[in-house]
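TASK: fixed-backbone design
INPUT:
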């Protein structure tokens, strides 16, 4: 019977050790899950991510300057497309009207006769409810 008692006592000691380990793990988890700690971890993670992204962007820009230049030029051309198209040749204005969905292909072709007579106005844009100035 003493062997059984020793086994029970050993099992009790293991259970107590496991319980203590569980309680310390819970305390550690509670300390990690405080709002201040979570906020600090989130800020550190965001700073690290932004720093890494900035380094990658700078490295990419330095290794591909022509691509970056064309990308910036394309962005600026898109942003300033209305003033640019206002000073463009008539044929380009018709093509823009067709590409922008303001004119069907047949209307763009039909306007070629009208454009030759001096009229070069495109229909008003639906984008910003303003008429673009289209002058040659």
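OUTPUT:
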């Amino acid at each position: 019977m003493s062997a059984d008692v020793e086994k029970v006592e050993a099992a009790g000691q293991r259970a107590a050790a496991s319980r203590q380990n569980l309680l310390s793990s819970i305390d550690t988890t509670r300390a990690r899950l405080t709002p201040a700690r979570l906020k600090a971890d989130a800020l550190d993670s965001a700073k690290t991510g932004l720093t890494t992204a900035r380094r990658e962007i700078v490295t990419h820009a330095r290794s591909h300057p022509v691509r970056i230049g064309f990308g910036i030029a394309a962005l600026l051309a898109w942003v300033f497309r209305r003033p640019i198209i206002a000073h463009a040749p008539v044929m380009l204005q018709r093509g823009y009207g067709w590409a922008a969905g303001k004119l069907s292909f047949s209307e763009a072709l039909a306007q070629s006769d009208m454009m030759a007579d001096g009229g070069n106005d495109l229909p008003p844009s639906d984008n910003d409810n303003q008429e673009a100035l289209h002058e040659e």
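COMMENT: The mean pLDDT is 81.
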